[in-house]
Amino acid sequence: MKFCSISILLAIAFIGNAKANPQQEEETTEPCLADCVVGGSGDLECTFEVRRDELASELGYFEFRGAGGVNCGSTNPTLGIMKGVTYFFKQPSTGNYFHPIGFAYYPDGALDDQPELEPGIAPPGSGSDCGLTLSCPAPMYISDGVYLGKYSNNADIAPVNGDEDFGLDAYEPQFKYPLLDWKSRGTYKVGLKFDDNVFEDDFFYFCHVHKFMSGRIKFLDGNGKDSLRPKNDPIIPYKYQQPDAYDRSCGATGISAYQLPNDQCPSKFVCESMEDEKPSVKKFAECIDTMNCAMITGMTTKVNKGSAIALFNHQMIPHHQQAINMCKALDIEGSTECDDIFTEEPQCLLKVLCQEIINVQNAQIQTMRGILSALDLDQTDDCVVPIAKSAKSKKSKSRKSAKGIKRD
Questions:
Q1: 31-55 pLDDT, tens per residue?
Q2: Where are the domains of the chain?
């Protein structure tokens, strides 16, 4: 069951600063182009290498390498494709873990109850009856060189065939395996050939596990370089996160407002003096202090609408965010640097552990937010508990109690 709708994000926003989505600009004339060569069949074959910048937001955002292997620029860039041409979206890097790419006619696809590119779904407004023959444009999911489905509109991948199975149901679960199991299964890529001649609107790439990571794809004109329709339509209905300078220094998201001293937190969490520590450890300790304050502040909540489920989620979400931020900060500090994650070196064990924490717990946070929405519970219900005031109150009560004790 898929929880969470775009309205949730509009209600709670993302934690941290947000920047205007560049794809919300009125038009894009020059999208990022793929790396294209003439394939074995004599037809053009184009490739985007999919990566992810996990520090770009709480969830991270997609990155792509296109023509000449050059990075497309910003995270979640607008991509350009030609109709009737085979495109491959390769997902080789570890950053793709828990992020199987998908394609939909509107942002976030089925995660927001929107139609995806599937054999039985005709492009909106095309008037095509391809849905009846299960032959509509759809991605074809490939693992370690083996096509996982039965549908095909591309003879270069598999014999042309109408079927509802395009491989996603086998591809997506692999991305949720333990990291080393996922990595050991070889290469992952998705083939896409859009062969409907009527539909010319934009469509979208997205993550099948994490919402709010959508980016735009535009069709190219006859020269294969410029947008056929420069106008960006439909608009992606949410902003992209942008961690501020302090968050970036820690590799975290949404913590800068909780730097110590803070009235709702102790004076410190890391007890020893950091003066003699190397700079990276000193900075990591400072970030831990700030993260702990953010978590403690986030976990001072009311019991929303008398619901134990609300209390559980309101307590657990900051706890998960803390774990994610700690792992990213440890990456920034350098203690998870690892050349081969299959070795049992301590740094490599931590790298694997943190990759699983970051990606699994981010997905769990979205599930918890979806549950709150499904039960009509508030996304947050915080209360303020000043530490200083509380401590003074306890001291006062302690003194009063001591005065009331009779001594022999």
A1: 999 999 998 778 899 999 999 999 9
A2: 19-240, 245-396
